[in-house]
Design brief:
Layout lengths: L4 H23 L15 H9 L4 H18 L6 H19 L5 H25 L6 H34 L3
């Protein structure tokens, strides 16, 4: 069923509000607790779950908006988050539009895979390339625990975002 212009506007405003709320939770110290030094990157599963089932253009804008908000407060990334999330959301939208069916488990698996890729690529680009002595320690003490923490949070976010998307899409 095709949504009217008003329904699409409401849907995209709700998506933007969700992304802003996730950015606030992720980036304000103390709102989401750190567990054993691991941080939860809420914008990754949020952007992935919101872009699943959308067309490619919408997915690109969801990823770009999420990444730009994250890059506004990140000190090292210099646009990395925006480019990564935009590319990940686009690739997922293409795969799901042409090859796969959007399901709960696909949403959870996609957010976990994208989070793992983000953690590994970020570690390689910003930690290993700088040549620090503790680069191997940081992957085990910060990045992989952050991946697990974010994946668990993404699982629970799926229970909230997927039904909301179905309601907004009138499915």
């Amino acid at each position: 069923m095709e949504l009217t212009k008003k329904e699409k506007t409401i849907k995209y405003l709700v998506f933007a509000a969700i992304i802003c709320a996730l950015a606030l939770l992720q980036n304000v110290f103390g709102l989401i607790p750190q567990i054993a030094g691991a941080r939860c990157f809420l914008l990754i599963p949020g952007a992935v779950l919101l872009s699943i089932g959308e067309d490619e253009r919408t997915a690109v804008f969801i990823g770009l908006f999420s990444g730009v908000i994250w890059d506004c407060v990140a000190s090292l990334s210099r646009g990395f988050n925006a480019l990564f999330l935009m590319a990940a959301c686009y690739i997922l939208a293409v795969l799901i539009t042409h090859l796969l069916r959007p399901t709960f488990w696909l949403g959870f698996a996609s957010s976990a895979i994208v989070t793992f890729l983000y953690v590994v690529i970020y570690w390689l680009v910003f930690v290993v390339s700088k040549g620090g002595d503790g680069s191997l320690v940081t992957i085990w003490q910060f990045y992989l625990p952050s991946f697990v923490y974010t994946s668990v949070a993404g699982f629970f976010m799926s229970f909230l975002i997927i039904p909301l998307k179905k309601k907004l899409n009138k499915e």
